[in-house]
Amino acid sequence: MAQNAADLLKAQNVGVEIIVGEDMADAADLAGKAARGDTDVLAIAGGDGTIRLAVEASIGSGKPLAVIPAGSGNDFARNLHIPLETADAVQVILDGHRRPVDLGRVSFPDGRTALFGTVAATGFDAAVTARAIDMRWPRGQARYTIAALFELIALRSRHYQVRVDDETAEADLIFAAIGNTTSYGGGMKITPKASVSDGQLDVTLAKNPPRFARPTLARVFPKVFTGTHIDHPLVQTMRGAEVELYCDPPALVSVDGDLVGELPAVFEAVPHAIEVFTPPTPS
Protein backbone atom coordinates (compact mmCIF):
# COMPACT_ATOMS: atom_id res chain seq x y z
CA MET A 1 0.00 0.00 0.00
CA ALA A 2 2.69 2.50 1.02
CA GLN A 3 4.91 1.53 -1.91
CA ASN A 4 2.01 1.82 -4.35
CA ALA A 5 1.19 5.29 -3.04
CA ALA A 6 4.86 6.30 -3.20
CA ASP A 7 5.13 5.13 -6.82
CA LEU A 8 2.05 7.14 -7.78
CA LEU A 9 3.44 10.26 -6.12
CA LYS A 10 6.87 9.82 -7.70
CA ALA A 11 5.18 9.52 -11.10
CA GLN A 12 3.97 13.08 -10.52
CA ASN A 13 7.49 14.26 -9.62
CA VAL A 14 6.81 14.34 -5.88
CA GLY A 15 9.81 13.46 -3.73
CA VAL A 16 8.98 10.59 -1.36
CA GLU A 17 10.82 8.81 1.44
CA ILE A 18 9.21 5.67 2.84
CA ILE A 19 9.59 5.17 6.58
CA VAL A 20 9.04 1.68 8.02
CA GLY A 21 9.78 0.99 11.67
CA GLU A 22 10.75 -2.31 13.23
CA ASP A 23 7.61 -2.04 15.35
CA MET A 24 4.90 0.53 16.06
CA ALA A 25 7.01 2.37 18.64
CA ASP A 26 9.94 2.62 16.25
CA ALA A 27 7.67 3.75 13.41
CA ALA A 28 6.19 6.46 15.64
CA ASP A 29 9.69 7.64 16.59
CA LEU A 30 10.73 7.82 12.95
CA ALA A 31 7.52 9.66 12.05
CA GLY A 32 8.17 12.23 14.75
CA LYS A 33 11.71 12.83 13.52
CA ALA A 34 10.48 13.15 9.92
CA ALA A 35 7.78 15.63 10.92
CA ARG A 36 10.38 17.80 12.62
CA GLY A 37 12.83 17.56 9.74
CA ASP A 38 12.74 18.90 6.20
CA THR A 39 9.62 16.93 5.26
CA ASP A 40 6.81 19.07 3.85
CA VAL A 41 4.03 16.52 4.42
CA LEU A 42 3.75 13.43 6.61
CA ALA A 43 1.74 10.82 4.71
CA ILE A 44 0.38 7.92 6.75
CA ALA A 45 -0.50 4.59 5.15
CA GLY A 46 -2.58 2.71 7.71
CA GLY A 47 -5.74 2.64 9.76
CA ASP A 48 -7.05 4.69 12.65
CA GLY A 49 -4.56 3.31 15.17
CA THR A 50 -1.59 4.01 12.91
CA ILE A 51 -2.85 7.53 12.26
CA ARG A 52 -3.21 8.09 16.00
CA LEU A 53 0.37 7.05 16.70
CA ALA A 54 1.67 9.27 13.89
CA VAL A 55 -0.36 12.20 15.20
CA GLU A 56 0.98 11.63 18.72
CA ALA A 57 4.52 11.63 17.34
CA SER A 58 4.15 14.69 15.11
CA ILE A 59 1.72 16.92 17.03
CA GLY A 60 3.07 20.44 17.36
CA SER A 61 5.35 20.17 14.35
CA GLY A 62 2.98 22.21 12.18
CA LYS A 63 3.35 19.75 9.32
CA PRO A 64 0.16 18.77 7.47
CA LEU A 65 -0.86 15.12 7.38
CA ALA A 66 -1.99 13.04 4.43
CA VAL A 67 -3.88 9.76 4.86
CA ILE A 68 -3.63 6.66 2.68
CA PRO A 69 -6.37 4.42 4.18
CA ALA A 70 -5.03 0.92 4.81
CA GLY A 71 -6.71 -0.27 7.99
CA SER A 72 -9.64 -2.46 8.97
CA GLY A 73 -11.94 0.42 9.90
CA ASN A 74 -10.62 3.63 8.30
CA ASP A 75 -13.18 5.74 10.15
CA PHE A 76 -10.95 8.81 10.32
CA ALA A 77 -10.63 8.75 6.53
CA ARG A 78 -14.35 8.06 6.06
CA ASN A 79 -15.30 11.07 8.18
CA LEU A 80 -13.02 13.33 6.14
CA HIS A 81 -14.36 11.86 2.87
CA ILE A 82 -10.89 10.61 1.94
CA PRO A 83 -11.29 7.84 -0.68
CA LEU A 84 -10.38 4.32 0.42
CA GLU A 85 -8.76 3.45 -2.91
CA THR A 86 -5.04 4.24 -2.89
CA ALA A 87 -4.95 6.01 -6.26
CA ASP A 88 -7.87 8.23 -5.30
CA ALA A 89 -6.35 9.02 -1.89
CA VAL A 90 -3.09 9.99 -3.62
CA GLN A 91 -5.03 12.31 -5.92
CA VAL A 92 -6.40 14.10 -2.84
CA ILE A 93 -2.80 14.83 -1.83
CA LEU A 94 -1.92 16.04 -5.31
CA ASP A 95 -4.96 18.32 -5.38
CA GLY A 96 -3.53 20.07 -2.34
CA HIS A 97 -6.68 21.00 -0.43
CA ARG A 98 -6.17 21.01 3.34
CA ARG A 99 -8.48 21.58 6.29
CA PRO A 100 -8.02 21.97 10.04
CA VAL A 101 -9.29 19.01 12.03
CA ASP A 102 -10.16 18.63 15.72
CA LEU A 103 -8.78 15.86 17.89
CA GLY A 104 -9.78 14.49 21.28
CA ARG A 105 -7.49 13.98 24.26
CA VAL A 106 -8.01 11.63 27.20
CA SER A 107 -6.17 12.24 30.48
CA PHE A 108 -5.84 9.76 33.35
CA PRO A 109 -5.23 10.49 37.05
CA ASP A 110 -1.62 9.26 36.84
CA GLY A 111 -0.80 11.94 34.25
CA ARG A 112 -0.89 9.74 31.16
CA THR A 113 -2.63 11.19 28.11
CA ALA A 114 -3.58 9.96 24.65
CA LEU A 115 -4.87 11.76 21.59
CA PHE A 116 -7.60 10.31 19.40
CA GLY A 117 -9.07 11.16 16.03
CA THR A 118 -12.25 9.10 16.02
CA VAL A 119 -13.96 7.72 19.14
CA ALA A 120 -13.00 7.01 22.74
CA ALA A 121 -14.89 3.95 23.96
CA THR A 122 -15.53 2.77 27.52
CA GLY A 123 -17.32 -0.21 29.01
CA PHE A 124 -18.95 -2.55 26.51
CA ASP A 125 -17.42 -0.64 23.59
CA ALA A 126 -13.88 -1.01 24.89
CA ALA A 127 -14.50 -4.68 25.73
CA VAL A 128 -15.54 -5.19 22.11
CA THR A 129 -12.32 -3.50 21.00
CA ALA A 130 -10.27 -5.72 23.28
CA ARG A 131 -11.96 -8.84 21.88
CA ALA A 132 -11.64 -7.62 18.27
CA ILE A 133 -7.91 -6.98 18.74
CA ASP A 134 -7.46 -10.64 19.72
CA MET A 135 -9.45 -11.91 16.72
CA ARG A 136 -7.51 -12.90 13.60
CA TRP A 137 -10.63 -13.44 11.51
CA PRO A 138 -12.62 -11.89 9.95
CA ARG A 139 -11.06 -8.58 8.92
CA GLY A 140 -12.74 -5.21 8.61
CA GLN A 141 -16.10 -4.20 9.99
CA ALA A 142 -17.31 -7.80 10.42
CA ARG A 143 -14.66 -8.41 13.10
CA TYR A 144 -16.15 -5.69 15.34
CA THR A 145 -19.67 -6.91 14.68
CA ILE A 146 -18.86 -10.47 15.72
CA ALA A 147 -16.89 -9.26 18.75
CA ALA A 148 -19.91 -7.18 19.79
CA LEU A 149 -22.23 -10.16 19.52
CA PHE A 150 -19.93 -12.23 21.76
CA GLU A 151 -19.77 -9.42 24.33
CA LEU A 152 -23.58 -9.15 24.33
CA ILE A 153 -23.78 -12.71 25.61
CA ALA A 154 -21.83 -11.80 28.76
CA LEU A 155 -23.23 -8.29 29.05
CA ARG A 156 -22.62 -6.34 32.26
CA SER A 157 -23.32 -2.77 33.31
CA ARG A 158 -21.42 -0.32 35.49
CA HIS A 159 -22.57 2.62 37.56
CA TYR A 160 -21.37 5.76 35.79
CA GLN A 161 -21.07 9.36 36.92
CA VAL A 162 -20.85 11.63 33.88
CA ARG A 163 -20.03 15.31 33.54
CA VAL A 164 -20.17 17.06 30.18
CA ASP A 165 -19.11 20.69 30.72
CA ASP A 166 -21.60 21.83 33.39
CA GLU A 167 -24.19 19.11 32.78
CA THR A 168 -24.16 15.91 34.82
CA ALA A 169 -25.78 12.47 34.62
CA GLU A 170 -25.66 9.33 36.74
CA ALA A 171 -26.92 5.91 35.71
CA ASP A 172 -26.15 2.23 35.28
CA LEU A 173 -24.68 2.11 31.78
CA ILE A 174 -23.50 -0.55 29.40
CA PHE A 175 -21.13 1.88 27.74
CA ALA A 176 -20.23 5.52 27.26
CA ALA A 177 -18.70 6.56 23.93
CA ILE A 178 -17.05 9.92 23.29
CA GLY A 179 -16.87 10.84 19.62
CA ASN A 180 -14.77 13.31 17.67
CA THR A 181 -16.08 11.60 14.53
CA THR A 182 -19.42 9.99 13.82
CA SER A 183 -18.17 6.42 13.67
CA TYR A 184 -15.74 3.73 14.71
CA GLY A 185 -15.28 0.04 13.93
CA GLY A 186 -15.57 0.52 10.18
CA GLY A 187 -18.72 2.65 9.96
CA MET A 188 -20.61 2.02 13.22
CA LYS A 189 -22.20 5.46 13.75
CA ILE A 190 -22.02 5.53 17.51
CA THR A 191 -22.00 9.34 17.74
CA PRO A 192 -23.82 10.15 14.48
CA LYS A 193 -24.00 13.93 14.97
CA ALA A 194 -20.32 14.44 15.80
CA SER A 195 -18.17 16.79 13.73
CA VAL A 196 -14.40 17.07 13.40
CA SER A 197 -14.63 20.85 13.12
CA ASP A 198 -16.99 22.05 15.88
CA GLY A 199 -14.62 22.04 18.87
CA GLN A 200 -16.95 19.66 20.71
CA LEU A 201 -17.13 16.00 21.67
CA ASP A 202 -20.35 14.03 21.28
CA VAL A 203 -21.26 11.56 24.03
CA THR A 204 -23.52 8.51 23.66
CA LEU A 205 -24.64 6.77 26.84
CA ALA A 206 -26.33 3.36 26.68
CA LYS A 207 -28.42 2.62 29.76
CA ASN A 208 -28.74 -0.84 31.21
CA PRO A 209 -32.22 -2.26 30.47
CA PRO A 210 -34.16 -4.37 32.97
CA ARG A 211 -33.12 -8.01 32.75
CA PHE A 212 -36.41 -9.01 31.16
CA ALA A 213 -35.79 -6.43 28.45
CA ARG A 214 -32.30 -7.65 27.47
CA PRO A 215 -33.52 -8.91 24.06
CA THR A 216 -34.17 -5.23 23.28
CA LEU A 217 -30.42 -4.76 22.94
CA ALA A 218 -30.24 -7.26 20.12
CA ARG A 219 -32.86 -5.21 18.27
CA VAL A 220 -31.25 -1.85 19.00
CA PHE A 221 -27.67 -2.88 18.18
CA PRO A 222 -28.06 -3.05 14.37
CA LYS A 223 -29.32 0.56 14.40
CA VAL A 224 -25.79 1.72 15.22
CA PHE A 225 -24.92 1.29 11.53
CA THR A 226 -27.41 4.02 10.60
CA GLY A 227 -27.09 6.10 13.77
CA THR A 228 -30.78 5.74 14.60
CA HIS A 229 -29.98 4.01 17.92
CA ILE A 230 -29.80 7.45 19.55
CA ASP A 231 -33.60 7.75 19.19
CA HIS A 232 -34.18 4.81 21.55
CA PRO A 233 -35.26 5.57 25.16
CA LEU A 234 -32.31 3.59 26.53
CA VAL A 235 -29.83 5.93 24.80
CA GLN A 236 -28.87 9.40 26.00
CA THR A 237 -26.69 11.85 24.09
CA MET A 238 -24.73 14.85 25.33
CA ARG A 239 -22.24 17.30 23.80
CA GLY A 240 -19.49 19.47 25.20
CA ALA A 241 -15.84 20.49 25.15
CA GLU A 242 -14.91 18.47 28.26
CA VAL A 243 -16.19 15.11 29.46
CA GLU A 244 -15.41 13.50 32.81
CA LEU A 245 -16.28 9.86 33.50
CA TYR A 246 -16.20 7.77 36.66
CA CYS A 247 -17.62 4.28 36.95
CA ASP A 248 -17.84 1.35 39.36
CA PRO A 249 -16.41 -1.13 38.69
CA PRO A 250 -13.71 0.55 36.52
CA ALA A 251 -14.10 0.20 32.75
CA LEU A 252 -11.49 -0.11 30.03
CA VAL A 253 -10.86 2.87 27.73
CA SER A 254 -9.94 2.49 24.08
CA VAL A 255 -9.20 5.25 21.59
CA ASP A 256 -9.04 4.73 17.82
CA GLY A 257 -9.13 0.99 18.47
CA ASP A 258 -6.20 0.99 20.94
CA LEU A 259 -6.59 0.17 24.63
CA VAL A 260 -4.99 3.00 26.61
CA GLY A 261 -6.21 2.69 30.22
CA GLU A 262 -9.29 2.58 32.39
CA LEU A 263 -11.69 5.02 34.02
CA PRO A 264 -11.77 7.48 35.68
CA ALA A 265 -10.63 9.85 32.96
CA VAL A 266 -11.21 13.28 31.46
CA PHE A 267 -11.80 13.71 27.73
CA GLU A 268 -11.41 17.08 26.05
CA ALA A 269 -11.75 18.45 22.55
CA VAL A 270 -8.60 19.88 20.95
CA PRO A 271 -9.95 22.26 18.26
CA HIS A 272 -8.08 22.61 14.96
CA ALA A 273 -5.25 20.45 16.29
CA ILE A 274 -3.90 19.29 12.90
CA GLU A 275 -4.20 20.00 9.19
CA VAL A 276 -5.15 17.11 6.89
CA PHE A 277 -5.31 16.80 3.11
CA THR A 278 -8.98 16.21 2.23
CA PRO A 279 -11.31 16.62 -0.72
CA PRO A 280 -12.94 20.07 -0.75
CA THR A 281 -16.01 20.26 1.49
CA PRO A 282 -19.14 20.21 -0.67
CA SER A 283 -20.87 23.61 -0.74
Automatic annotation (TrEMBL):
<dbReference type="InterPro" id="IPR045540">
    <property type="entry name" value="YegS/DAGK_C"/>
</dbReference>
<keyword id="KW-0594">Phospholipid biosynthesis</keyword>
<keyword id="KW-0067">ATP-binding</keyword>
<keyword id="KW-0808">Transferase</keyword>
<feature type="domain" description="DAGKc">
    <location>
        <begin position="1"/>
        <end position="110"/>
    </location>
</feature>
<dbReference type="InterPro" id="IPR016064">
    <property type="entry name" value="NAD/diacylglycerol_kinase_sf"/>
</dbReference>
<dbReference type="GO" id="GO:0004143">
    <property type="term" value="F:ATP-dependent diacylglycerol kinase activity"/>
</dbReference>
<dbReference type="GO" id="GO:0005886">
    <property type="term" value="C:plasma membrane"/>
</dbReference>
<keyword id="KW-0443">Lipid metabolism</keyword>
<keyword id="KW-0547">Nucleotide-binding</keyword>
<protein>
    <recommendedName>
        <fullName>DAGKc domain-containing protein</fullName>
    </recommendedName>
</protein>
<dbReference type="Pfam" id="PF00781">
    <property type="entry name" value="DAGK_cat"/>
</dbReference>
<dbReference type="InterPro" id="IPR050187">
    <property type="entry name" value="Lipid_Phosphate_FormReg"/>
</dbReference>
<keyword id="KW-0418">Kinase</keyword>
<keyword id="KW-0444">Lipid biosynthesis</keyword>
<keyword id="KW-0460">Magnesium</keyword>
<dbReference type="GO" id="GO:0046872">
    <property type="term" value="F:metal ion binding"/>
</dbReference>
<comment type="similarity">
    <text>Belongs to the diacylglycerol/lipid kinase family.</text>
</comment>
<keyword id="KW-1208">Phospholipid metabolism</keyword>
<dbReference type="InterPro" id="IPR005218">
    <property type="entry name" value="Diacylglycerol/lipid_kinase"/>
</dbReference>
<dbReference type="InterPro" id="IPR001206">
    <property type="entry name" value="Diacylglycerol_kinase_cat_dom"/>
</dbReference>
<dbReference type="InterPro" id="IPR017438">
    <property type="entry name" value="ATP-NAD_kinase_N"/>
</dbReference>
<dbReference type="GO" id="GO:0008654">
    <property type="term" value="P:phospholipid biosynthetic process"/>
</dbReference>
<keyword id="KW-0479">Metal-binding</keyword>
<dbReference type="GO" id="GO:0005524">
    <property type="term" value="F:ATP binding"/>
</dbReference>
<dbReference type="Pfam" id="PF19279">
    <property type="entry name" value="YegS_C"/>
</dbReference>
